[in-house]
Amino acid sequence: MTERTVKIGIVGSQFQADIHAASIAMGKHGEVVAVASPTAGNAAELAARYGIPKAFTDYREMLKDPEIELITITAPNKLHCQITVDAANAGKNVVVEKPMAMTLAECDEMIEACRRNGVHLFYAEELFFTPKYVKAKQMADQGAFGKVYLVKQSEMHFGPHADWFWDIDRSGGGVFMDMGCHGLSFCHWFLGRPEPLTITAQMGTYVHGERTRGEDHTFAIVEFAGGAVGHVEDSWARQGGMDDRVEVYGDQGLTIANLHMGNALPTFSATGFDYAVEKAPTTVGWTYPVFEELWNYGFPQELEHFCRVVLGREESDATGEDGRLALQLLLAGYHSAGTGRRVALPFDAPEVARPVDLWLHPRAE
Ligand SMILES: NC(=O)c1ccc[n+]([C@@H]2O[C@H](COP(=O)([O-])OP(=O)(O)OC[C@H]3O[C@@H](n4cnc5c(N)ncnc54)[C@H](O)[C@@H]3O)[C@@H](O)[C@H]2O)c1
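^ thats the input. predicted complex w/ nicotinamide-adenine-dinucleotide below
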C-alpha cells in the first residue's frame, strides 16, 4: 500500500524555495502543491520548473487551500513570525527557515500559535541532517573520541546572493545572524543538547563595510554544562566559494569533517562549465565541483523527516525550541561582542528590534 503524501505549500520562490522544492521531490512523503511569492510571475516560474500545480502572489490566499497540511517559509527573516502565526492560525504545520525570528518575543509568539492550533513548528536546521556530520555524531555517541571537550563548526563564503541579507532591518544582523545560528545549534545538538552556560564572541565588518552595517566575520565560544566547548566561526568575507566544516576533539580521538572536500572533484578547466558549488564565483581554473549537493547538505533528509513527523511516523528532532535557543545564543553573542565581556546564559536580552543592535549599540551591563 502506498502511503499518502503530505501536501506542502512553499512561501517564497527564490534561493531556499528552490532548494525546498528540489529536496521534497527527492523524498517519498511530501509533495509540493503550491507556492506563494509576492513578485508577479516568480511563484509561477518556480511552479513551472517543478511541476507544482498552484501559484499565488499572496501567501494568505495559499493558506486558505484545505489540501495543504504543511507550509515551508523561505522568506526573509523579518517575515518569519507573521507568516508562521498566519499559517498556524490556518491550521497548517510550519517549517520555518533559520534564523527563526528577529526577537525572542516573536519566537514565543510562533511557538504559542503552533501549540494553540495543534500544529507542528519545525525549525529548518539542516546541519542536524547533514550526512557527514551525522556520521561524526554517531561516532561520538559510540564513544569513538572518548569524552568530547571541543566541537568546532564553521561556514564561510563571500556573502549572500540577495540584497535583504545585507540590510539589517530585514535580516536582523550580518553573518552571525545568518550562519552563526547554524553553528550554535549544531554544537548544542552534537553534544546532546546540554545547557549552554556562557558565550563569548568577537566580530567585525572587515570587507563589506560599504555594503552593510552588519558583521562579516565572527567567532563565538560557548561553554556547555558538562564541560565541553563549542567554537563557531562564520564569514561573509572569505573568497573562493563555500567552506563548511566540523571538527570534534575528545580525550580518545578526533574527527575532521570538511563538507565540501571529499564530496568534490579537484578540477581544472580553462573554459569553465555550468556550475561548481554554491557561491563559487567562477568555474574557470582550479575549482572543486560537488556532486549530489543538496543530499550532502542534508536538505532532502530534513524535509523528509518533517513530512514523516506530520504523518505520525517519527518524533520531531528540530523544533521551535531549537530555533529559540539559537536566537537566545545569537543575542547573547552580539551582546558579548558589543561589551567585550563573556555573557552568562540564559541571557535576559534587552528589547531590540534587530539582534545586531546589541553589537552596534552596546548596552550597559
Ligand atoms: N538553511 C539554509 O542553509 C538556508 C540557506 C539560504 C537561506 N535560508 C533562509 O531562507 C530564508 C529565505 O532566504 P533565501 O536565500 O531564499 O532568500 P531569497 O531572497 O532568495 O528569497 C526570498 C523570497 O521571499 C519572498 N518574499 C519576500 N517578501 C515576501 C512576503 N511578504 N510574502 C511571501 N514571500 C515573500 C521573495 O519574493 C523571495 O521569493 C531566509 O530566512 C534565509 O535565512 C536558509
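The first helix runs from residue 15 to 26.
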